[in-house]
Design goal:
The complex is a heterodimer of chains A (324) and B (288). Chain A has 324 residues and is mainly alpha-helical. Helix content of chain A is 78%, strand content 0%. Chain A has a domain at 93-286: MetI-like fold (Orthogonal Bundle). Chain A starts with a helix and ends in a 6-residue tail after the last helix. Chain B is flat, with a radius of gyration of 23 Å. Chain B is mainly α and 288 residues long. In chain B, α2 (25-42) crosses α12, α6 runs antiparallel to α7 and α10 runs antiparallel to α12. Classes of the chains: A mainly alpha (324), B mainly alpha (288). At the A-B interface, α1, α6, α7, α10 and α11 of A face α5, α6, α10, α11 and α12 of B.
Amino acid sequence: MVIAVASRLLLRRALLAVPLVFAVVALTFFFIRLAPGDPAQILAGDAPTPEFLAQVRAEYGLDQPVWTQFLAFLAKALTGDFGTSLYSKQPVFAVILERFPATVLMTGTAMIVASIVGILVGVASAKRAGSHADTLISSASLLGYSMPGFWVGQLLVLLFSVSLDWFPATGMEAARASYTGWRHIQDVAWHMVLPVTTLALFLLTMIARFTRAAMIDALDQDYVLVAEAKGASRNRILWHHAFRNACVTTITVIGLEFGAVLAGAVVVEIVFGWPGLGRLFYDAIYRRDFPLLTGAFMFSSLIVIGVNMVSDVACALLDPRIRR
Amino acid sequence: MKTAATLPTPWFAPAWLVRFLRSPISTVVGSLLVLVVVAGVILAPLITHADPMALSSDTLLEPAWAHPMGTDDLGRDELARVLYGGRASLVIGLFSALLSVILGMTIGMVAGFFGGAIDETLMRITEAFQILPKLLVAVVVVSLIGSGLTNEVLVIGLLSWPATARVIRGRVQVIRHEEFIAAAEMSGASWLRVLVRHVAPNVVSFLLVSASLQVASAIMSESFLSFLGLGDPAHPSWGLLLQQGQLFLSDAWWLTTFPGIALAMTILGLNLLGDGVSGSRIVAGSRR
Protein backbone atom coordinates (compact mmCIF):
# COMPACT_ATOMS: atom_id res chain seq x y z
CA MET A 1 0.00 0.00 0.00
CA VAL A 2 2.65 2.48 1.12
CA ILE A 3 4.90 1.36 -1.71
CA ALA A 4 2.12 1.88 -4.25
CA VAL A 5 1.40 5.39 -2.95
CA ALA A 6 5.11 6.20 -2.85
CA SER A 7 5.77 5.04 -6.38
CA ARG A 8 2.77 6.96 -7.72
CA LEU A 9 3.95 10.11 -5.93
CA LEU A 10 7.50 9.58 -7.08
CA LEU A 11 6.36 9.29 -10.66
CA ARG A 12 4.36 12.49 -10.43
CA ARG A 13 7.28 14.37 -8.82
CA ALA A 14 9.59 12.97 -11.47
CA LEU A 15 7.39 14.50 -14.14
CA LEU A 16 7.59 17.83 -12.33
CA ALA A 17 11.37 17.49 -12.15
CA VAL A 18 11.69 17.11 -15.94
CA PRO A 19 11.38 20.84 -16.69
CA LEU A 20 13.86 21.54 -13.90
CA VAL A 21 16.42 19.13 -15.34
CA PHE A 22 15.86 20.68 -18.73
CA ALA A 23 16.36 24.14 -17.19
CA VAL A 24 19.67 23.12 -15.60
CA VAL A 25 21.06 21.85 -18.91
CA ALA A 26 19.73 24.90 -20.76
CA LEU A 27 21.27 27.23 -18.15
CA THR A 28 24.63 25.51 -18.44
CA PHE A 29 24.52 25.85 -22.22
CA PHE A 30 23.51 29.49 -21.84
CA PHE A 31 26.41 30.16 -19.43
CA ILE A 32 28.93 28.69 -21.87
CA ARG A 33 27.51 30.91 -24.62
CA LEU A 34 27.46 33.87 -22.25
CA ALA A 35 31.17 33.70 -21.59
CA PRO A 36 33.19 36.14 -23.63
CA GLY A 37 35.00 34.56 -26.57
CA ASP A 38 34.56 31.46 -28.63
CA PRO A 39 32.71 28.59 -26.91
CA ALA A 40 34.96 26.12 -28.73
CA GLN A 41 37.93 27.82 -27.07
CA ILE A 42 36.23 27.50 -23.68
CA LEU A 43 35.53 23.80 -24.17
CA ALA A 44 38.98 23.15 -25.61
CA GLY A 45 41.08 24.90 -22.97
CA ASP A 46 43.48 27.82 -23.03
CA ALA A 47 46.00 26.72 -25.64
CA PRO A 48 44.43 24.08 -27.88
CA THR A 49 46.02 22.80 -31.03
CA PRO A 50 44.10 23.82 -34.18
CA GLU A 51 43.20 20.15 -34.74
CA PHE A 52 41.73 19.77 -31.25
CA LEU A 53 39.79 23.02 -31.69
CA ALA A 54 38.35 21.72 -34.94
CA GLN A 55 37.53 18.40 -33.27
CA VAL A 56 35.66 20.14 -30.42
CA ARG A 57 33.87 22.35 -32.92
CA ALA A 58 32.68 19.31 -34.82
CA GLU A 59 31.86 17.29 -31.69
CA TYR A 60 29.56 19.96 -30.28
CA GLY A 61 28.33 21.07 -33.68
CA LEU A 62 29.57 24.58 -33.01
CA ASP A 63 29.57 25.36 -36.71
CA GLN A 64 25.80 24.67 -36.72
CA PRO A 65 22.99 27.10 -35.77
CA VAL A 66 22.50 27.75 -32.03
CA TRP A 67 19.39 25.55 -31.82
CA THR A 68 21.13 22.56 -33.33
CA GLN A 69 24.00 23.17 -30.92
CA PHE A 70 21.66 23.23 -27.98
CA LEU A 71 19.95 19.99 -29.01
CA ALA A 72 23.32 18.30 -29.42
CA PHE A 73 24.41 19.55 -25.99
CA LEU A 74 21.12 18.41 -24.45
CA ALA A 75 21.31 14.97 -26.04
CA LYS A 76 24.87 14.52 -24.80
CA ALA A 77 24.11 15.76 -21.27
CA LEU A 78 21.03 13.55 -20.88
CA THR A 79 22.98 10.45 -21.81
CA GLY A 80 25.61 11.25 -19.20
CA ASP A 81 28.13 12.46 -21.77
CA PHE A 82 29.46 15.63 -20.15
CA GLY A 83 32.47 15.85 -22.46
CA THR A 84 36.13 15.20 -21.77
CA SER A 85 38.11 16.72 -18.94
CA LEU A 86 40.78 19.00 -20.40
CA TYR A 87 43.23 18.18 -17.64
CA SER A 88 42.93 14.42 -17.18
CA LYS A 89 41.68 13.69 -20.73
CA GLN A 90 39.15 11.31 -19.14
CA PRO A 91 35.38 11.42 -19.69
CA VAL A 92 33.98 13.98 -17.24
CA PHE A 93 31.32 11.59 -16.02
CA ALA A 94 33.92 8.97 -15.08
CA VAL A 95 36.01 11.55 -13.21
CA ILE A 96 32.92 12.66 -11.28
CA LEU A 97 31.84 9.12 -10.41
CA GLU A 98 35.31 8.37 -9.10
CA ARG A 99 35.11 11.27 -6.64
CA PHE A 100 31.43 10.95 -5.79
CA PRO A 101 31.59 8.24 -3.05
CA ALA A 102 33.85 10.38 -0.82
CA THR A 103 31.39 13.28 -1.01
CA VAL A 104 28.41 10.99 -0.37
CA LEU A 105 30.17 9.56 2.68
CA MET A 106 30.92 12.96 4.19
CA THR A 107 27.69 14.75 3.22
CA GLY A 108 25.50 11.76 4.12
CA THR A 109 27.07 11.37 7.55
CA ALA A 110 26.82 15.10 8.19
CA MET A 111 23.13 15.09 7.20
CA ILE A 112 22.32 12.17 9.49
CA VAL A 113 24.18 13.75 12.42
CA ALA A 114 22.63 17.18 11.76
CA SER A 115 19.12 15.74 11.46
CA ILE A 116 19.27 13.78 14.70
CA VAL A 117 20.92 16.52 16.76
CA GLY A 118 18.94 19.32 15.07
CA ILE A 119 15.60 17.62 15.72
CA LEU A 120 16.47 16.83 19.34
CA VAL A 121 17.62 20.41 19.96
CA GLY A 122 14.61 21.90 18.15
CA VAL A 123 12.10 19.76 20.04
CA ALA A 124 13.82 20.36 23.37
CA SER A 125 13.77 24.13 22.95
CA ALA A 126 10.15 24.13 21.71
CA LYS A 127 9.20 22.18 24.85
CA ARG A 128 10.67 24.94 26.99
CA ALA A 129 9.86 27.86 24.66
CA GLY A 130 10.70 31.19 26.26
CA SER A 131 12.97 29.73 28.94
CA HIS A 132 16.61 30.70 29.39
CA ALA A 133 17.70 27.41 27.84
CA ASP A 134 15.55 28.14 24.79
CA THR A 135 17.02 31.63 24.43
CA LEU A 136 20.52 30.24 24.76
CA ILE A 137 19.88 27.58 22.11
CA SER A 138 18.30 30.13 19.75
CA SER A 139 21.24 32.52 20.15
CA ALA A 140 23.75 29.73 19.64
CA SER A 141 22.01 28.57 16.49
CA LEU A 142 21.89 32.13 15.12
CA LEU A 143 25.62 32.40 15.81
CA GLY A 144 26.27 29.06 14.10
CA TYR A 145 24.18 30.17 11.15
CA SER A 146 26.19 33.41 10.87
CA MET A 147 29.61 31.77 10.56
CA PRO A 148 30.75 30.74 7.08
CA GLY A 149 31.29 26.97 6.99
CA PHE A 150 34.85 27.13 5.73
CA TRP A 151 35.85 29.47 8.55
CA VAL A 152 34.35 27.12 11.15
CA GLY A 153 36.41 24.38 9.54
CA GLN A 154 39.57 26.49 9.71
CA LEU A 155 38.95 27.24 13.39
CA LEU A 156 38.42 23.54 14.13
CA VAL A 157 41.71 22.73 12.39
CA LEU A 158 43.51 25.45 14.37
CA LEU A 159 42.10 24.16 17.66
CA PHE A 160 41.91 20.38 17.28
CA SER A 161 44.72 19.69 14.82
CA VAL A 162 47.31 22.44 15.12
CA SER A 163 47.05 23.17 18.87
CA LEU A 164 45.70 19.99 20.46
CA ASP A 165 46.73 17.50 17.78
CA TRP A 166 43.66 15.31 18.47
CA PHE A 167 42.40 14.88 14.93
CA PRO A 168 44.14 14.88 11.54
CA ALA A 169 43.84 18.17 9.65
CA THR A 170 43.59 16.89 6.09
CA GLY A 171 42.84 13.90 3.91
CA MET A 172 40.55 10.92 4.14
CA GLU A 173 43.03 8.30 5.37
CA ALA A 174 46.49 8.18 6.89
CA ALA A 175 48.99 8.93 4.12
CA ARG A 176 51.78 6.58 5.11
CA ALA A 177 49.81 3.62 6.38
CA SER A 178 47.78 1.26 4.22
CA TYR A 179 45.27 -0.13 6.67
CA THR A 180 42.76 -2.76 5.67
CA GLY A 181 39.50 -4.02 7.10
CA TRP A 182 38.38 -2.68 10.47
CA ARG A 183 41.51 -0.53 10.94
CA HIS A 184 40.79 1.19 7.65
CA ILE A 185 37.22 2.02 8.66
CA GLN A 186 38.50 3.40 11.97
CA ASP A 187 41.08 5.49 10.17
CA VAL A 188 38.55 7.03 7.76
CA ALA A 189 36.11 7.67 10.62
CA TRP A 190 38.91 9.44 12.50
CA HIS A 191 39.59 11.68 9.50
CA MET A 192 35.88 12.38 9.11
CA VAL A 193 35.27 13.85 12.57
CA LEU A 194 36.26 17.45 11.83
CA PRO A 195 34.84 17.86 8.29
CA VAL A 196 31.55 16.20 9.26
CA THR A 197 31.25 18.40 12.36
CA THR A 198 31.85 21.50 10.23
CA LEU A 199 29.30 20.59 7.60
CA ALA A 200 26.73 19.31 10.11
CA LEU A 201 26.90 22.51 12.15
CA PHE A 202 25.40 24.61 9.37
CA LEU A 203 22.52 22.24 8.62
CA LEU A 204 21.96 21.59 12.31
CA THR A 205 21.25 25.26 13.06
CA MET A 206 18.72 25.43 10.21
CA ILE A 207 16.98 22.20 11.26
CA ALA A 208 16.87 23.25 14.92
CA ARG A 209 15.41 26.69 14.10
CA PHE A 210 12.67 25.41 11.81
CA THR A 211 11.84 22.34 13.93
CA ARG A 212 11.46 24.58 16.97
CA ALA A 213 9.05 26.91 15.16
CA ALA A 214 7.03 24.01 13.72
CA MET A 215 6.88 22.25 17.10
CA ILE A 216 5.69 25.38 18.91
CA ASP A 217 2.96 25.65 16.29
CA ALA A 218 2.04 21.95 16.56
CA LEU A 219 1.96 21.95 20.39
CA ASP A 220 -0.61 24.74 20.18
CA GLN A 221 -3.09 22.65 18.16
CA ASP A 222 -6.32 21.08 19.37
CA TYR A 223 -5.14 17.52 18.78
CA VAL A 224 -2.44 18.02 21.40
CA LEU A 225 -5.09 19.21 23.85
CA VAL A 226 -7.20 16.14 23.04
CA ALA A 227 -4.22 13.85 23.55
CA GLU A 228 -3.49 15.53 26.89
CA ALA A 229 -7.12 15.16 27.95
CA LYS A 230 -7.00 11.47 27.11
CA GLY A 231 -4.03 11.11 29.42
CA ALA A 232 -1.27 10.47 26.88
CA SER A 233 2.21 10.70 28.35
CA ARG A 234 4.31 13.81 27.80
CA ASN A 235 6.72 11.97 25.52
CA ARG A 236 3.96 10.39 23.49
CA ILE A 237 2.33 13.79 22.92
CA LEU A 238 5.67 15.33 22.01
CA TRP A 239 6.85 12.69 19.54
CA HIS A 240 3.75 10.85 18.37
CA HIS A 241 1.32 13.76 18.10
CA ALA A 242 3.30 16.98 17.73
CA PHE A 243 6.50 15.87 16.00
CA ARG A 244 4.72 13.77 13.39
CA ASN A 245 3.19 17.02 12.20
CA ALA A 246 6.26 19.16 12.67
CA CYS A 247 8.60 16.81 10.83
CA VAL A 248 7.07 17.78 7.49
CA THR A 249 8.70 21.20 7.99
CA THR A 250 11.97 19.58 9.01
CA ILE A 251 12.07 17.39 5.91
CA THR A 252 11.18 20.32 3.65
CA VAL A 253 14.03 22.36 5.15
CA ILE A 254 16.49 19.50 4.63
CA GLY A 255 15.39 19.27 0.99
CA LEU A 256 15.53 22.99 0.32
CA GLU A 257 18.88 23.44 2.06
CA PHE A 258 20.47 20.49 0.32
CA GLY A 259 21.87 22.71 -2.43
CA ALA A 260 23.51 24.88 0.22
CA VAL A 261 24.81 21.76 1.98
CA LEU A 262 26.42 20.56 -1.24
CA ALA A 263 27.98 23.99 -1.80
CA GLY A 264 29.12 23.87 1.83
CA ALA A 265 30.66 20.47 1.15
CA VAL A 266 32.71 22.06 -1.65
CA VAL A 267 34.46 24.52 0.69
CA VAL A 268 34.68 22.07 3.58
CA GLU A 269 36.41 19.57 1.29
CA ILE A 270 38.91 22.27 0.32
CA VAL A 271 39.67 23.16 3.94
CA PHE A 272 40.15 19.51 4.89
CA GLY A 273 41.68 18.24 1.65
CA TRP A 274 38.83 15.73 1.34
CA PRO A 275 39.11 13.94 -2.03
CA GLY A 276 35.51 14.46 -3.22
CA LEU A 277 33.45 16.48 -5.69
CA GLY A 278 34.34 19.74 -3.93
CA ARG A 279 38.04 19.38 -4.67
CA LEU A 280 37.04 18.59 -8.23
CA PHE A 281 35.21 21.93 -8.49
CA TYR A 282 38.20 23.74 -7.02
CA ASP A 283 40.70 22.09 -9.34
CA ALA A 284 38.43 22.66 -12.33
CA ILE A 285 38.22 26.38 -11.51
CA TYR A 286 41.99 26.66 -11.16
CA ARG A 287 42.83 24.67 -14.27
CA ARG A 288 40.07 26.41 -16.24
CA ASP A 289 38.79 22.92 -17.03
CA PHE A 290 35.35 24.09 -18.19
CA PRO A 291 33.91 20.76 -19.38
CA LEU A 292 34.71 19.34 -15.93
CA LEU A 293 33.28 22.41 -14.17
CA THR A 294 30.01 22.47 -16.12
CA GLY A 295 29.74 18.68 -15.87
CA ALA A 296 30.22 18.71 -12.10
CA PHE A 297 27.66 21.51 -11.89
CA MET A 298 25.04 19.62 -13.91
CA PHE A 299 25.69 16.45 -11.93
CA SER A 300 25.33 18.24 -8.56
CA SER A 301 22.19 20.04 -9.70
CA LEU A 302 20.59 16.74 -10.72
CA ILE A 303 21.41 15.30 -7.30
CA VAL A 304 19.86 18.35 -5.64
CA ILE A 305 16.71 18.00 -7.76
CA GLY A 306 16.58 14.28 -6.87
CA VAL A 307 16.90 14.94 -3.13
CA ASN A 308 14.14 17.54 -3.32
CA MET A 309 11.94 15.03 -5.09
CA VAL A 310 12.52 12.44 -2.37
CA SER A 311 11.86 14.98 0.38
CA ASP A 312 8.61 16.00 -1.35
CA VAL A 313 7.47 12.40 -1.53
CA ALA A 314 8.44 11.80 2.10
CA CYS A 315 6.37 14.83 3.15
CA ALA A 316 3.38 13.61 1.16
CA LEU A 317 3.64 10.15 2.71
CA LEU A 318 3.75 11.65 6.21
CA ASP A 319 1.00 14.18 5.68
CA PRO A 320 -1.97 12.97 3.61
CA ARG A 321 -3.14 16.59 3.21
CA ILE A 322 -0.22 17.25 0.87
CA ARG A 323 -1.22 14.39 -1.47
CA ARG A 324 -3.39 16.40 -3.78
CA MET B 1 0.40 56.94 31.94
CA LYS B 2 3.28 58.95 30.61
CA THR B 3 5.43 57.25 28.02
CA ALA B 4 9.15 57.64 27.65
CA ALA B 5 8.67 59.96 24.72
CA THR B 6 6.62 62.52 26.65
CA LEU B 7 8.87 62.67 29.70
CA PRO B 8 11.53 65.38 29.64
CA THR B 9 14.79 63.66 28.87
CA PRO B 10 18.28 64.72 29.98
CA TRP B 11 20.81 65.60 27.30
CA PHE B 12 22.69 62.33 27.65
CA ALA B 13 19.56 60.27 27.06
CA PRO B 14 17.61 61.79 24.18
CA ALA B 15 14.26 60.24 23.29
CA TRP B 16 15.62 58.32 20.28
CA LEU B 17 18.32 56.71 22.40
CA VAL B 18 15.81 55.66 25.06
CA ARG B 19 13.55 54.24 22.37
CA PHE B 20 16.49 52.40 20.79
CA LEU B 21 17.59 50.87 24.08
CA ARG B 22 14.05 49.70 24.77
CA SER B 23 13.82 47.79 21.50
CA PRO B 24 14.49 44.03 21.62
CA ILE B 25 17.97 43.10 22.75
CA SER B 26 18.72 41.50 19.38
CA THR B 27 18.11 44.83 17.61
CA VAL B 28 20.42 46.67 20.02
CA VAL B 29 23.24 44.11 19.77
CA GLY B 30 22.76 43.72 16.02
CA SER B 31 22.91 47.47 15.35
CA LEU B 32 25.97 47.87 17.55
CA LEU B 33 27.81 45.07 15.74
CA VAL B 34 26.95 46.51 12.33
CA LEU B 35 27.83 50.01 13.51
CA VAL B 36 31.27 48.91 14.76
CA VAL B 37 32.03 47.12 11.48
CA VAL B 38 30.82 49.96 9.26
CA ALA B 39 32.70 52.56 11.34
CA GLY B 40 35.88 50.49 11.24
CA VAL B 41 35.66 50.00 7.51
CA ILE B 42 34.90 53.65 6.72
CA LEU B 43 37.42 55.08 9.21
CA ALA B 44 40.14 52.62 8.17
CA PRO B 45 42.68 55.36 7.31
CA LEU B 46 42.27 56.86 10.81
CA ILE B 47 42.66 53.52 12.58
CA THR B 48 45.85 52.42 10.85
CA HIS B 49 48.40 54.20 8.71
CA ALA B 50 49.49 50.93 7.15
CA ASP B 51 48.81 50.40 3.46
CA PRO B 52 46.93 47.11 2.86
CA MET B 53 48.90 46.54 -0.33
CA ALA B 54 52.40 47.62 0.84
CA LEU B 55 54.86 44.73 0.79
CA SER B 56 57.63 44.47 3.37
CA SER B 57 60.25 42.03 4.55
CA ASP B 58 58.40 41.48 7.87
CA THR B 59 56.60 38.37 6.67
CA LEU B 60 54.25 36.24 8.80
CA LEU B 61 54.82 38.23 12.00
CA GLU B 62 52.66 37.30 14.98
CA PRO B 63 50.26 39.97 16.24
CA ALA B 64 52.22 42.59 18.19
CA TRP B 65 51.98 46.30 18.93
CA ALA B 66 53.35 47.35 15.52
CA HIS B 67 50.98 44.98 13.70
CA PRO B 68 47.96 44.29 15.95
CA MET B 69 46.74 41.50 13.66
CA GLY B 70 50.15 40.37 12.46
CA THR B 71 51.42 40.36 8.89
CA ASP B 72 50.82 38.02 5.95
CA ASP B 73 53.25 36.04 3.81
CA LEU B 74 54.19 39.17 1.82
CA GLY B 75 54.68 41.30 4.92
CA ARG B 76 51.43 43.23 4.50
CA ASP B 77 49.71 44.54 7.65
CA GLU B 78 46.75 42.26 8.39
CA LEU B 79 44.78 44.91 10.32
CA ALA B 80 44.84 47.19 7.29
CA ARG B 81 43.88 44.28 5.06
CA VAL B 82 40.93 43.34 7.28
CA LEU B 83 39.70 46.95 7.49
CA TYR B 84 40.04 47.70 3.78
CA GLY B 85 38.89 44.18 2.89
CA GLY B 86 35.61 44.99 4.58
CA ARG B 87 35.00 47.66 1.97
CA ALA B 88 34.88 45.07 -0.83
CA SER B 89 32.72 42.70 1.23
CA LEU B 90 30.26 45.40 2.31
CA VAL B 91 29.99 47.03 -1.12
CA ILE B 92 29.30 43.71 -2.83
CA GLY B 93 26.88 42.74 -0.04
CA LEU B 94 24.96 46.02 -0.22
CA PHE B 95 24.65 46.28 -3.97
CA SER B 96 23.77 42.66 -4.63
CA ALA B 97 21.19 42.78 -1.82
CA LEU B 98 19.76 45.95 -3.36
CA LEU B 99 19.46 44.22 -6.73
CA SER B 100 17.89 41.09 -5.26
CA VAL B 101 15.44 43.03 -3.08
CA ILE B 102 14.26 45.15 -6.02
CA LEU B 103 13.85 42.03 -8.16
CA GLY B 104 12.17 40.07 -5.39
CA MET B 105 9.83 42.91 -4.54
CA THR B 106 8.78 43.39 -8.16
CA ILE B 107 8.22 39.70 -8.79
CA GLY B 108 6.47 39.16 -5.45
CA MET B 109 4.17 42.17 -5.93
CA VAL B 110 3.20 41.21 -9.47
CA ALA B 111 2.56 37.58 -8.49
CA GLY B 112 0.56 38.43 -5.40
CA PHE B 113 -1.39 41.24 -7.05
CA PHE B 114 -2.48 39.54 -10.26
CA GLY B 115 -2.77 35.97 -8.98
CA GLY B 116 -3.99 33.28 -11.39
CA ALA B 117 -1.73 32.07 -14.18
CA ILE B 118 0.80 34.90 -13.69
CA ASP B 119 1.17 33.98 -10.03
CA GLU B 120 1.38 30.27 -10.85
CA THR B 121 4.11 30.81 -13.47
CA LEU B 122 6.16 33.19 -11.35
CA MET B 123 5.96 30.96 -8.30
CA ARG B 124 7.07 27.87 -10.26
CA ILE B 125 10.08 29.86 -11.49
CA THR B 126 10.76 31.02 -7.93
CA GLU B 127 10.63 27.45 -6.65
CA ALA B 128 12.99 26.30 -9.38
CA PHE B 129 15.42 29.05 -8.39
CA GLN B 130 15.17 27.98 -4.75
CA ILE B 131 15.96 24.36 -5.53
CA LEU B 132 18.95 25.17 -7.76
CA PRO B 133 22.21 25.19 -5.79
CA LYS B 134 22.70 28.94 -6.11
CA LEU B 135 26.30 29.04 -4.91
CA LEU B 136 27.34 26.41 -7.44
CA VAL B 137 25.54 28.32 -10.21
CA ALA B 138 27.46 31.42 -9.10
CA VAL B 139 30.75 29.48 -9.21
CA VAL B 140 30.13 28.33 -12.79
CA VAL B 141 28.99 31.74 -14.04
CA VAL B 142 31.80 33.72 -12.42
CA SER B 143 34.41 31.21 -13.66
CA LEU B 144 33.08 31.61 -17.17
CA ILE B 145 32.43 35.36 -17.36
CA GLY B 146 35.36 36.32 -15.15
CA SER B 147 35.59 37.72 -11.62
CA GLY B 148 35.33 41.37 -10.64
CA LEU B 149 33.14 43.46 -8.36
CA THR B 150 30.41 44.10 -10.96
CA ASN B 151 30.13 40.48 -12.04
CA GLU B 152 29.96 39.29 -8.44
CA VAL B 153 27.21 41.80 -7.60
CA LEU B 154 25.20 40.83 -10.70
CA VAL B 155 25.51 37.09 -10.15
CA ILE B 156 24.73 37.13 -6.41
CA GLY B 157 21.90 39.63 -6.88
CA LEU B 158 20.27 37.74 -9.74
CA LEU B 159 20.34 34.47 -7.77
CA SER B 160 19.11 35.69 -4.37
CA TRP B 161 15.66 37.16 -4.99
CA PRO B 162 13.34 34.13 -4.36
CA ALA B 163 13.11 34.52 -0.56
CA THR B 164 12.09 38.17 -0.84
CA ALA B 165 9.65 37.41 -3.65
CA ARG B 166 7.84 34.79 -1.56
CA VAL B 167 7.56 36.99 1.53
CA ILE B 168 6.29 39.97 -0.47
CA ARG B 169 3.85 37.82 -2.45
CA GLY B 170 2.32 36.48 0.78
CA ARG B 171 1.96 40.01 2.13
CA VAL B 172 0.44 41.37 -1.09
CA GLN B 173 -2.08 38.51 -1.19
CA VAL B 174 -3.32 39.69 2.21
CA ILE B 175 -3.68 43.39 1.37
CA ARG B 176 -4.94 42.70 -2.17
CA HIS B 177 -8.49 42.42 -0.85
CA GLU B 178 -8.41 45.42 1.46
CA GLU B 179 -10.85 48.23 0.82
CA PHE B 180 -8.29 50.89 0.01
CA ILE B 181 -7.07 48.84 -2.95
CA ALA B 182 -10.62 48.41 -4.22
CA ALA B 183 -11.21 52.15 -3.70
CA ALA B 184 -8.13 53.04 -5.70
CA GLU B 185 -9.10 50.67 -8.49
CA MET B 186 -12.64 52.03 -8.59
CA SER B 187 -11.41 55.59 -8.80
CA GLY B 188 -9.78 54.58 -12.07
CA ALA B 189 -6.14 54.19 -11.04
CA SER B 190 -4.10 52.02 -13.40
CA TRP B 191 -2.68 48.75 -12.06
CA LEU B 192 0.80 50.25 -12.13
CA ARG B 193 -0.34 53.18 -10.02
CA VAL B 194 -2.13 50.90 -7.58
CA LEU B 195 0.98 48.77 -7.23
CA VAL B 196 3.40 51.67 -6.81
CA ARG B 197 1.28 54.06 -4.74
CA HIS B 198 -0.89 51.73 -2.68
CA VAL B 199 0.65 48.28 -2.49
CA ALA B 200 4.35 49.13 -2.35
CA PRO B 201 4.18 51.41 0.73
CA ASN B 202 2.50 48.58 2.63
CA VAL B 203 5.22 46.05 1.98
CA VAL B 204 8.22 48.33 2.57
CA SER B 205 8.46 47.43 6.25
CA PHE B 206 8.81 43.77 5.26
CA LEU B 207 11.57 44.73 2.87
CA LEU B 208 13.55 46.13 5.79
CA VAL B 209 13.78 42.66 7.33
CA SER B 210 14.40 41.02 4.01
CA ALA B 211 17.09 43.53 3.04
CA SER B 212 19.04 43.09 6.24
CA LEU B 213 19.01 39.29 5.85
CA GLN B 214 19.83 39.64 2.15
CA VAL B 215 22.92 41.74 2.85
CA ALA B 216 24.08 39.09 5.33
CA SER B 217 23.51 36.30 2.86
CA ALA B 218 25.15 38.22 0.00
CA ILE B 219 28.28 38.87 2.09
CA MET B 220 28.34 35.15 2.90
CA SER B 221 27.99 34.24 -0.80
CA GLU B 222 30.77 36.66 -1.74
CA SER B 223 33.10 35.11 0.83
CA PHE B 224 32.26 31.69 -0.63
CA LEU B 225 33.21 32.82 -4.16
CA SER B 226 36.37 34.56 -2.97
CA PHE B 227 37.38 31.52 -0.94
CA LEU B 228 37.21 29.48 -4.14
CA GLY B 229 39.54 31.97 -5.79
CA LEU B 230 36.80 33.74 -7.74
CA GLY B 231 37.07 37.08 -5.91
CA ASP B 232 38.48 40.26 -7.36
CA PRO B 233 42.22 40.24 -6.55
CA ALA B 234 42.37 44.02 -7.03
CA HIS B 235 39.84 44.47 -4.19
CA PRO B 236 40.66 41.74 -1.64
CA SER B 237 37.58 40.96 0.44
CA TRP B 238 37.36 39.01 3.70
CA GLY B 239 36.73 35.80 1.77
CA LEU B 240 39.93 36.32 -0.21
CA LEU B 241 41.88 36.93 3.01
CA LEU B 242 40.50 33.66 4.37
CA GLN B 243 41.56 31.87 1.20
CA GLN B 244 45.11 33.21 1.69
CA GLY B 245 44.92 32.24 5.35
CA GLN B 246 44.09 28.66 4.36
CA LEU B 247 47.56 28.33 2.79
CA PHE B 248 49.23 29.20 6.11
CA LEU B 249 46.70 27.57 8.42
CA SER B 250 49.26 25.68 10.50
CA ASP B 251 51.83 28.53 10.59
CA ALA B 252 49.80 31.71 10.98
CA TRP B 253 46.55 31.42 12.93
CA TRP B 254 46.03 35.18 12.75
CA LEU B 255 45.50 35.15 8.99
CA THR B 256 42.29 33.13 9.34
CA THR B 257 41.12 34.18 12.78
CA PHE B 258 40.81 37.96 12.30
CA PRO B 259 39.17 38.21 8.84
CA GLY B 260 36.78 35.45 9.96
CA ILE B 261 35.81 37.33 13.12
CA ALA B 262 35.10 40.45 11.05
CA LEU B 263 33.01 38.41 8.61
CA ALA B 264 31.05 36.54 11.30
CA MET B 265 30.49 39.75 13.31
CA THR B 266 28.99 41.48 10.29
CA ILE B 267 26.75 38.58 9.30
CA LEU B 268 25.64 37.99 12.90
CA GLY B 269 24.88 41.69 13.33
CA LEU B 270 22.77 41.82 10.18
CA ASN B 271 20.93 38.59 11.06
CA LEU B 272 20.19 39.88 14.58
CA LEU B 273 18.98 43.13 13.08
CA GLY B 274 16.66 41.27 10.71
CA ASP B 275 15.39 39.08 13.54
CA GLY B 276 14.91 42.03 15.85
CA VAL B 277 13.12 44.22 13.32
CA SER B 278 10.70 41.44 12.38
CA GLY B 279 9.74 41.02 16.04
CA SER B 280 9.60 44.68 16.98
CA ARG B 281 7.03 47.39 16.63
CA ILE B 282 8.54 48.76 13.44
CA VAL B 283 6.72 46.07 11.51
CA ALA B 284 3.74 45.56 13.77
CA GLY B 285 2.93 49.27 13.82
CA SER B 286 3.61 49.94 10.18
CA ARG B 287 -0.02 49.93 9.11
CA ARG B 288 -1.56 52.12 11.79
